[in-house]
Amino acid sequence: MELKLFDSERKVMEVLWDHGDLSAKELADRLKELVGWSKTTTYTVIKKCIDKKAVSRSEPGFVCHPLVSREEVREQETDALIDLLVANLLGSRRLSPEELARLKRRIEELE
User: Fold this and answer.
1) Which tens digit of pLDDT belongs to each residue from 10-19?
2) Is the pTM of the predicted complex or chain greater than 0.85?
3) Rounded to whole angstroms, how far apart are CA atoms 14 and 100?
4) What do you get for the CA distance between the two ends of the chain, in Å?
5) Sign of the CA dihedral running 78, 110, 6, 22
6) 40-61 pLDDT, tens per residue?
7) N or C terminus of the chain: which is more exposed, having fewer CB within 10 Å?
């Protein structure tokens, strides 16, 4: 399963990976502390994660559970970056600023 998480979705996943299953309210409270998001913003990003099948929710309490591990996401991101590098090295296209930033972040994570 190929899963592309945007930075906002990755923030939600990081909190779930670090703290385990949380209610949407608990997740919103933690993300408000960490990045200053409103509850509405957090709920919108949770919905995107659910749509991507990265998170499941259960009742009661809208409890969020990660469906993919940190390692699975890192591996997919690494594979995507390798593909980008190979494409760049073969001269098929230049890396965008966003792709370069992702590559730099990934290299820093590996160090």
Assistant:
1) 999 999 999 9
2) no
3) 21
4) 26
5) positive
6) 999 999 999 999 999 999 999 8
7) C
